Amino acid sequence: MLAKRIIPCLDIKDGRVVKGTNFLGLQDVSSPVELAEYYNLSGADELVFYDITASFAGRKLFADTLVDVASRVFIPLTVGGGINTVDDFDRVLKCGADKVSVNSGAIANPSLVGEAARKYGNQCVVLSIDAKRVNGRFEVFSKGGRVPTGIDAVEWAYRGQEEGAGELVVNSIDTDGVKQGFDLEMLSAICDRVKIPVIASGGAGCAEHFVQLFESVPGVDAGLAASIFHFKQVDIKELKKLLVSKGQPVRL
Amino acid sequence: MIAVVDYGVGNLFSLLCSLKFIGADARVTCDAEEIRAAEGIILPGVGAFADARAKLAATGLEPVLKEQADAGKPFLGICLGMQMLFEKSYEYGEHEGLGFMKGEVVPFDLPKGMKVPHMGWNALNKTGDCPLLKYTADGDYVYYVHSFYVDGNSPYAAGVSDYGVKVAGAVCKGNVFGTQFHPEKSGEVGLGILKAFSEICKEGAL
Q1: How far, CA to CA in Å, does B112 sit from each of A187, A249, B115, B151?
Q2: Residue B125 pLDDT more than 60?
Q3: What is the CATH number of the domain that holds B177?
Q4: Predicted complex ipTM exceeds 0.95
Q5: I want to staple A222 with a disulfide (CB 3.0 to 4.6 A). Which of A55, A126, A199, B41 is the partner?
Q6: Is the pTM value of this prediction over 0.90?
Q7: Residue contact A1–B117, C-beta within 8 A
């Protein structure tokens, strides 16, 4: 039986961890390497790093950060942010990433997921989707949730799977930063359509939200969050104990 | 020194980092003499079986690996590297393995709702007393990513995981070991397994 995964997400800018609320307003939190080691010891099942710098210097710092983390933390590492070409996959895989997450890059170039999957294997390609409710359906947004694309999120998820994505991150813009729980409705709609693992993102405000997530949407494999872990509002060890007491399979 | 066989498959960055982290002297090599001189051999591997087999064959190292394994040198296959220890794989066709262990690699035939690949953390239940799992407790979680597997009823299974079917997670036959999961991605448990292998290498030929 596979364990349900708990995944802290670290947004990295200029070599530091930041966290936005509704994608706006950044606040410095900590050193990526320290935080990664802390999460590893707390029982995080995986770490996600998003590179939110655009500058060349920032990108170089990010690569150095990644190498530092991968040299000390031996759990799966997923990297996203600025992944637009197969060369970008190569760049981060060389620094120790195990999986690479594409978002806007796949919207701009729909053949990217397939190309990368053929070159590195499906298990390496994560399609990350930012979506929100528009006119009674879930619509995909690009560029960090700012630009509407007109694409239906459920169909985009299915298409990603067919192209060769090995996993999906589903981030609800509606619930992100609001801390009232994950977007169970959006997650159910997507889980019903795909058979690859789904990581839920956006909305976790307390440990109970993870219990609710795994109980309400059994198809979800993992829960991802950032600030509640960074600010120690939720301790991963305690969260996992809670999940075990509720009968969820987790790695302790 | 542990020789990590370089045959152009996959990313060895994490494996090397984890070996360094536990204090093992590891070197990536495709040099026959260096492999012969090593205290132990690791055969890594990700990707498709047929492609990896072709690449390994192209290096001309297979006779060296066979000779060394037969001579009792500690040998560890990881993920696809473990699958290649067996006689045959049915991954998109039928392909011959190295044949160090009897048995075959087959696709998952899973109950409805189970996902392929088998990707994530699963509990490893020990089925024997393999020195590779010296530091591993029964039920410890390890990290898997694979779509084909060796049946957990294999006589060489030292640890199995339940994924609708019984998956051989760790295998052991004398000096030859294999892990279907990735020890270099399995946190403390994985580091313990690499440490055990490194100690087996230091103790010399089995």
Answers
A1: 20, 19, 8, 19
A2: yes
A3: 3.40.50.880
A4: no
A5: A199
A6: yes
A7: no
Sequence-distant contacts of A23-26: CB under 8 A, at least 24 apart: A23/A144, A23/A145, A23/A146, A23/A173, A23/A176, A23/A177
Distance from CA of B108 to the nearest CA of A (A): 14
Every domain of chain A and the residues it spans: 5-245
User: Looking at the DSSP assignment, which residues form a beta bridge with residue A152?
Assistant: A139
Residue A120 has pLDDT above 80, yes or no: yes
Q: What is the domain extent for residue B184?
A: 2-203
Number of domains observed in the structure of chain B = 1
Please state the length of chain B.
206
pLDDT reported for residue A19: 66
User: How many other CB atoms sit within 10 Å of the CB of residue B29?
Assistant: 18
Residue A17 has pLDDT above 90, yes or no: no
pLDDT at A24: 45
Please determine, looking at this structure, whether the domain spanning A5-245 carries the CATH number 2.40.50.220: no
- In the prediction, which pLDDT does B11 show? 78
A156 pLDDT more than 50? yes
